[in-house]
Amino acid sequence: MISPLPLAAIPPEHEARRAEVRAFLQKEMPAAPAYMRARSWMGFDAGFSRKLAHHGWVGLSLPKEYGGAGEGHFARFVIVEELLAAGAPVSAHWIADRQSGPLILRYGTQDQKDFYLPRICKAEAFFCIGMSEPNSGSDLASVGSRATRTDDGWILSGRKIWTTNAPKSHYMIALVRTSGSAADRNQGLSQFIIDLSLPGVTVRPIEDLAGDAHFSEIFFDDVHLSDAALVGREGQGWEQVTAELAFERSGPERIYSSLVVLESWLRHLRASGRRDDVAVALLGRFVAHLAVLREMSIAVTHRLSQGESPVVEAALVKDLGTEFEQTIPALIADAVAAFPDAPENAELVRAIAYAQQVAPSYSLRGGTREILRSMIARGLGLR
Amino acid sequence: MMDQILTDSFEQLILEQCDPARIRRIEAGEPTESLWALLHESGFMDALVPEDRGGAGLGLRDVADLFIACGRHALPVPVAHTALARAELSLAGIEPPSGSITLADRCRVDESGTIVASAVPFGLTADWVWARISNDSVSLLPTGEAERQLSGGHGSLAADLRWKSRPAAAISATGIVDSAFDLRSTGAAVNAALLAGAMARVLEMSIGYANERVQFGKPIGKFQAVQQQLSVLSEQTYASRTAALLGLSSITHRVDPRLAAIAKSRASEAAVVAAAIGHAVHGAIGITAEYDLQLYTRPLHEWRREYGGETYWNSLLGRQLLAAAEAPLEFVRLLCTRENDSTTMRTP
Predict the structure, then answer these.
(1) A9 vs B227: CB contact, 8 Å cut-off?
(2) CA B235, CA A352: separation in Å to the nearest integer?
(3) Digit-coded pLDDT (tens) for B171-186
């Protein structure tokens, strides 16, 4: 069965960090309309990331010897919560901070740690994730990109797709096959750090339905990788990627994607003086859901901070969290459209439209809803 | 640790004394005196009573799991309500009566002077009803002197209770009991726990059934369509459990009305989904009187309606958010910041 998740609390020393982050955001957060802030951890601003890095808020969990903050899960929870609540553009350093850095710290060689980690902490090295391929989505073990040994390294061929931020990233950590065939499933996979400026790498942005081009397709045509590009052990890629996904699924970002839309609507209601029953009850429903999800996320963070790996619990919270994120634009859209003759708030409508368009991605990225539910079912002991 | 031992020994007592067969008999009208006597003797009823008044002096967060257990076993008597009422009475220096006490949030006096408490939860099994008869009159009314009429569906223990005039045996709590003991909020927090418990039972039964029941040559739990539904059921159950713990997170015996609102709203919304999935997984056997599932799904719907449903509490929370100055997340964060939060672990 799944563990009971008792309530936990953010330790006061971490709670105390909020004021600092808020003061920083007040000063440094670039002014942006709600429909831009709604992009949040999809909003890319390298300069802003460097300012955060300057305050020690990039590479939060990385050791101080590499320029990190040496902080635990709760410090990250608080700082991330404040950044997401403000709709700060954190996408540039997001993946490196959340998963690439911790992955290199855990599995990398000393040389790799010395080279990449200080750059991550200064927001000078941005990373993207090379998991999905055109024929490998939820079935990640079927990846077909292949690295073949040579005298002095590896030759990589294949392609990755749906890679967030690839055109603006310096490196990709990719899961590729190094032995056997697709029939060997999760055996024979390895992870590589790929310098995206190498000859043979082609990045083609893909425009999404919201008019953004944050994701892309990447082609590897006989890319020569040095031995130093392998991260972790050859053949251990599946275990490593599984651990990486646990980092990817557990954070508050799986609850807060539509928060800016909710805040804009609340601001609009307060300013307009509207108090219709549907809107009032809907606001309350969001409060109830948000409060419970946040408590669940804190409970999971507590387990992580105890050195545990609550993989199924994290999947459960992510699935509930993304459902909540998806209901926000849909239900607010209806509450606004319930009064077709009321004056429109163009900024709010654009924020709703943006969130509504990208909402399907909430339950795709980081593991689809269906895959998470299968994991939960196994956790429940369905045989 | 202490509360885990408390909950475990309480559950053991329920398992011995109140199995599904007894629940059925009580729902059919069997008196509850002997069951209540055993529960009362156990001392659990005074868990929240201050130590200097002879109780265990625990806070709500210490008994949250015990309250959830009452729902998990569909206890047909108001244990949680009684524990709360006894604490409040003791604190006010009133000796609590030995019988069970339920909380009535819908009470009025009509033109003829008749006291009417509508759709009282456990109105058929409780000995006393705690009711606010008017703004300045709070009393414990003996159900034995009331005209009782079933107010819920088949098997329900809820009842409309009428007293032609104020019964002589009534215990007055007027003016002594602080208005901080809001009946509807308190009942809402209790019901959130009962809902979370009953959902946990529906989840356990549904997983067990899905692993046993064979169709198309394999257990139905191997079918993805069934697995996905059970995952949703587990999500709703865990969310409700968290909601219930939040509603009962106080270190005293009094609920925070806004946390009770969150708890009741969330658990009530989940109850509908949970009951539907439990029945979908069980198929036709689940809707028979003979099979136990209905002992937990009927109360799910009933407990959802009592003490305000999700829209009632959502409206209250929504009005408060509108009237506040904070952004939604900050509002929630401040609302959920609990006393004594410096200790990271809240239950063992």
Answers:
(1) no
(2) 27
(3) 988 766 667 789 999 9
Q: Tell me if A280 and B319 make a contact (CB, 8 A cut-off).
A: yes
In CATH terms, the fold of domain A128-235 is: Butyryl-CoA Dehydrogenase, subunit A; domain 2 (2.40.110)
Contact B314 A281 (CB under 8 A): yes
What confidence score (pLDDT) does residue B174 get?
A: 76
Q: Which helix (H) or strand (E) holds B63?
A: helix B60-72
Interface confidence, given as ipTM, is 0.96
Q: Any alpha helices (H) in A216-368, and if so which ranges?
A: 237-249, 259-272, 277-305, 311-337, 346-362
| DSSP category for residue A26 | H
Domain ranges of chain B: 2-172, 183-336
Q: What's the confidence (pLDDT) of residue B342?
A: 40
Tell me how far the alpha carbon of residue A285 is from its chain's centroid. Answer: 26
d(C-alpha B296, C-alpha B316), whole Å:
28
Identify the pLDDT of residue B348: 31
Best to test chain A binding among B226, B344, B345, B346 (most A CBs inside 10 Å): B344
Q: pTM of the prediction?
A: 0.96
Q: How far is A333 from chain B (nearest CA, A)?
A: 17
Per the document, the length of chain A is 383
- Domain A250-379: CATH superfamily, name plus number: Butyryl-CoA Dehydrogenase, subunit A, domain 3 (1.20.140.10)
Distances in Å between the alpha carbon of A342 and those of A300, A335, A345? 43, 12, 9
Spatial distance between the Cα atoms of B282 and A334, rounded to a whole number of angstroms: 35
Indicate the helix (H) or strand (E) that contains B134: strand B128-134
> Could you tell me what percent of chain B has a pLDDT over 70?
95
A383: chain B residues, CB-CB within 8 Å: 211, 219, 221-222
Interface membership of B327 toward A (CB under 8 Å): yes
Give the DSSP per-residue string, A367-380.
S-HHHHHHHHHHHT
Tell me yes or no: is domain B183-336 CATH 3.40.50.300: no
Interface probe with A: pick from B322, B331, B339, most Cβ of A within 10 Å = B322
Q: How far apart are CA A94 and CA A83, in angstroms?
A: 11
In this predicted structure, what is the pLDDT of residue B161? 98
In angstroms, the CA A138 to CA A117 distance is 30
pLDDT for B343 beyond 50: no
- Chain B closest-CA separation from residue A191 CA (Å): 31
Q: Give me the residue spans of the domains in chain A.
A: 12-125, 128-235, 250-379
Chain B nearest-CA distance from A188, in A, is 28
Q: Which of B243, B317, B344 sits opposite A284 (nearest CB)?
A: B317
The answer to whether A281 contacts B343, with C-beta atoms less than 8 Å apart, is no
Chain A hits for B239, Cβ within 8 Å = 292-293, 296, 320
Instruction: Give the pLDDT of residue B345.
Output: 37
Given this model, what pLDDT does residue B284 score?
98
The verdict on B135 touching A (C-beta cutoff 8 Å) is no
User: With contact defined as beta carbons under 8 Å apart, do A191 and A232 qualify?
Assistant: yes
Class of domain B2-172: mainly alpha
Cα–Cα nearest to B135, from B90, B81, B174, B84: B174
- Cβ–Cβ of B318/A81 closer than 8 Å? no
Regions of chain A where pLDDT drops below 70: 1
Contact assessment for residue A16 and residue A22, using Cβ atoms and an 8 Å cutoff: no
User: H or E stretch including B233?
Assistant: helix B224-247
CATH number of A12-125: 1.10.540.10
B2-172 and B183-336 share one CATH topology? no
Say what the pLDDT of residue B243 is: 98
Rounded to whole angstroms, the Cα distance separating B50 from B17 reads 27
